[in-house]
Amino acid sequence: MKTAIIGTGGVGGYFGGKIANAGFDVTFLARGEHLKAIQSNGLKVKSISGDFSVYPARATDKVEEIGFADLIILGVKAWQVRPIAKELKAIVKKNTMVLPLQNGVLAADEVEEALGRDHVIGGLCRILSKVEAPGVIHHSGVDPMIVFGELNNQKTDRVAEIKNLFDRSGIHSKIADDIQSEIWRKFITICVSGLLAVTRSTYGVVRELKETRGMIRDLLSEIHFISQKAGIHLELNIVNQTMSDIDTYPYDSTASLTRDVWDGKPSEIEYQNGTVVRLAEKYGVDVPVNRFIYHCILPMELKARNRSDEFSMPFVSAPRISR
C-alpha cells in the first residue's frame, strides 16, 4: 500500500514515520527547513515509547510529485484541510482512501466536498507531539492511537486493509463502531486547548487550580449538551471520563492550538471553540465558557492571519451531523 502523509508535523510525522519505519512505501509532504532536513538527514522521531529514524525518507513540497496513492493521511492543521483537499485530486485514483486526523468535527465534510464521499474514511488520533526542530518529531505524552472507520460505520474490506497496515507498522489502532461518536469524544477533550491559550497555562496548572478546573468542567458540559442536541451518542459520564483523562496528561504539556496562539500563529480556534459557538447558535443553547474563550482568542487569530500570506481566515460553517 502506497501511503502519502500530507503534513509532516507532530501527527503526520509520528504516524507516517512508524509506517515508513516498518518498510512500507511512504511519501511525506513538508515545507521549508523541515523539508530540507528530512530530505538531507531523514525523519527523526524522539518518543517516550522509543526513538526511531527513517533514512532515507522520501519527501516533497509538491502534492503532484507524490503520484497516485492508495492511502492519504491528512496531518495538516484543521484550517488547511479545505484548500489542500482540492490539490489532492492530482494523486487520488479510483480506490484511494483519504483519512483525515484533524481536531474538530469538520474535516471529513470538507474532504468530501472536494473529493466525494466514497474516498473519505472518518478518523482521529490521540497523541501529544510536535515538531521539535527541522526533521525532528517529539512525542511527549499519551499512548499514540488512531481510531477510524467508514462514515456509515460499515465494516468494509478497505478499513480492514488499513487496520492491517497499522498493525504491521506497530501503530495502536481501532476500527470504530460509531466513528461520529468517537470524533466527538475527542472534540470534547481538545476544546480545552483554548482555555490553556487564554490562561497561558499548561494542563497541569489549569486542572489543579480550583477556579480553572471548574471552567474545564463547564466547558466540557456545554459541549456534551450540544452533542445530545445533535444526536451524537456519548456516555452520560463523558465529562467525568474526560476530566480523568486530562488528569493523566504530563503536567507541563500543552496542545497545538495553545502553542500556536502563544506564538502568534494562525490556529484551529474556528474548528474548536468556534465550532461549539456556531452549533450553540444552531440549536438555540448557551455556551458561555466556550463563547468567552472563542471571543478572547478571536482578536489574536485575526491579527495572526493578517500576518499570514499562506492562508486566509477559513470559512467555517456548522457541521452537517449526518450519518
Structure description:
The chain is of the alpha/beta class and 323 residues long. It folds into 2 domains: 175 residues, Rossmann fold; 123 residues, Orthogonal Bundle (N-(1-d-carboxylethyl)-l-norvaline Dehydrogenase, domain 2). The protein has 13 helices and 10 strands. The protein has a 5-stranded parallel β-sheet. The longest helix has 20 residues. It starts with a strand and ends in a 17-residue tail after the last helix.
Give the helices and strands, then pairings.
Elements: E1 3-6, H1 10-21, E2 26-29, H2 32-41, E3 43-47, E4 52-54, E5 58-60, E6 69-74, H3 81-87, E7 92-100, H4 107-115, E8 122-133, E9 136-149, H5 157-168, E10 173-175, H6 179-190, H7 193-199, H8 203-208, H9 210-229, H10 238-246, H11 256-262, H12 273-283, H13 288-306
Parallel strand pairs: 1-2, 1-6, 2-5, 3-9, 6-7, 9-10
Antiparallel strand pairs: 3-4, 8-9
In short:
This protein has 323 residues and is α/β, with parallel strands linked by helices.
| Number of DSSP helical runs | 13
Shape: globular
CATH-assigned homologous superfamily of the largest domain: NAD(P)-binding Rossmann-like Domain
Secondary-structure element series: EHEHEEEEHEHEEHEHHHHHHHH
- Number of domain modules: 2
Q: From the alpha-carbon coordinates, what is the Rg to the nearest angstrom?
A: 19 Å
The major beta sheet can be summarized as:
5 strands, parallel
Extended strand count: 10
Determine the N-to-C terminus distance. 28 Å
Regarding CATH, which class of the largest domain? Answer: Alpha Beta
- Provide the CATH architecture of the largest domain: 3-Layer(aba) Sandwich
- Strand percent estimate: 15-25%
Q: Regions with pLDDT < 50 over 5+ consecutive residues?
A: 309-313
In the sheet with the most strands, the strands line up as 5-2-1-6-7
SSE-based structural type: alpha/beta
- Calculate the mean pLDDT score and round it: 94
Helix share, percent: 40-55%
CATH fold group of the largest domain: Rossmann fold
